Amino acid sequence: MRAVSGSGGGSAAGSRGRRPWALLAGAAAVVVLAVTAVEVRPPGEDGRKDTAATPPSTAPSSTPSAGPTARGHLDRQKTDGDDASGAPRGDGKGERDKERKAKGAASGSPTPGATKGPDHGGSTRAPLTLSTRSHVWENGCGHRYVIDRPPSEVAPPPTEQDAPTWAAAHGAVHGGTTNVEVTVQGRASSAVVLQALHVRVVGRRTPLAWSSFAMDNGCGGSLTPRAFSVNLDATRPLARPTDGNDAGKPIPAVSFPYRVSASDPEVLLVNARTAGCDCSWYLELDWTSGGRSGTLRIDDHGSPFRTSSVKGRPQYAYDYADGAWYKSD
């Protein structure tokens, strides 16, 4: 009986001897579970980044991505890309967009200087600079604007150099004809070949029911550079080369291609006219250089040019002696 009792007492003593180790093992298991819980906690609960137990995710961008913000006016040196949106991206695509841009991928519609088509040079910047004027008068003196105002509320005709400000102040639209002068120059000594000039009519509407005001106020010298005639009323308008003029001496028409460089610019004059519509349009200039090629969009400060017919509209001219507009038709 003692032996049995002694055996049972030894068992109990053994249990009492092992209990601290069992408690330590249980505590260790609790610690391991606690650590595991920290490792797999879903992101965002405590504001910390994901741990190695979960794949990283791209956080939504809270600031607009860098990039060109404007299109069109070619007097600016906008030759680096185009229509990048400044809106923040919350879908994780912002970083991928930056990576594509870093690799030279163009996005959006082409802007002045942005290339379209093959570009083996690894850059989207065109090797050209452009300067454009759309308020160019015939021989420096003849032009018409249509304006939705009575003659008494129209200021005297400006000089040609002040025409953009004057036209904007009156909400004026080119009447019957728009002359666009484009100066094209290469960025380097290597030649850039201008291959073709295209006309894109993006809107044809009923001519504006406004009055027509003539800007004839004495003619200056007559100089016409490389000239192109465009009939906006045609189904598919084309820029056709026409003879130029230098103080009465004809300048024979020359067709594409042309070559330009940093030291050898070219001036193009486009004469676009309509007798039957209120037309919105722009130009595209194709170029090639050293295995690269692209297309430059030429427009009016980011918007299409606009030309409205003056056929059948009241015609006014300015009397400088009386200081007033008078009806001339």
From TrEMBL:
Q: Where is this region: Disordered?
A: 39-127
Where is there biased composition of kind Basic and acidic residues? 42-51, 72-81, 90-102
Task: List the biased-composition ranges (Low complexity).
Answer: 52-70
Name used for this protein in its record: Helix-turn-helix domain-containing protein
- Organism listed in the record: Streptomyces malaysiensis
